[in-house]
Amino acid sequence: MFKKKQDKFSLLLTDIAKNIDNTADYFVTYKVKDESTLSEFSNKLKEYETKGDQLVHTIIKELNHAFITPIEREDILQLTNSLDDVLDGMEEFSGMMDTYGIYSSDSYIDQFSGEIRSCAKEIMTTIELLSLNKLKDIQAHAIKIKEHEQNCDTIFRKSLKQLFQNEKDPIKVIQYKELYYILEEIADSCQSVANNLETIIMKNA
C-alpha cells in the first residue's frame, strides 16, 4: 500500500482530486449572466478538464513504466478513470450550456450543483486518506458520496417531472432534459469513485 512517504501515484491522484475540488468550487460559485460570462465559464471548465487529462496521461505513463505499484495497477487505473469522468461531466455541462445559449441556472441545477460540490469535497478527503494509507477512515466518506448521489437521483426525478408538466416550449424541454441528464451522470461518476475506493479498501485493508 501507499507508504508514509507519499509515492508518485498518491501525489498524482491527490493532484487530480484537488483539480476536481477546484473545478467543482468554480462550477458552483461562478455566475453566468450573459453570452460573455457563459463563454468564460465554458472556457475555464475546459482548462480544468485539460489539466485533468494531462494528469491522467501522466499516471498512465507512470503505470506503464512502474515495476511495482502501491496497489494493483487495475485499481489505480479504474480510480483514475472514474475521477476523470467527474471532471469530464462538468466540462460537458458547461459546453452544453454554451451550445444552447443558456445564461442562467434554475433551482434544480442549483440543487444538483450543491450535491456535486459536496461530492467533490468528499472525494478530496478520500484521496488524501488513501495517500496516507488510512483505509479504514475512507469508508465513511465513500458512504457520504453515495448519499449525495442518491439525493441527485431524487432531484433528477423531480426536475424531469416539473419540466414535462410545466414547460410548454419543446426546445427548452429538450435542452433542460439534457442538462439534468448530464448532472445526473456527474453524480453517477462520483458514485463510481466511491465504488472503486471501496474495492481498494476490500483488497488492501
From TrEMBL:
Organism superkingdom: Bacteria
Pfam families documented for this protein: PhoU_div
InterPro entries: PhoU-like_sf (IPR038078), Put_Phosphate_transp_reg (IPR018445), UPF0111_domain (IPR052912)
The family this protein is said to belong to: Belongs to the UPF0111 family.
Name of this chain's protein: Phosphate transport regulator
Annotated organism of origin: Terribacillus aidingensis
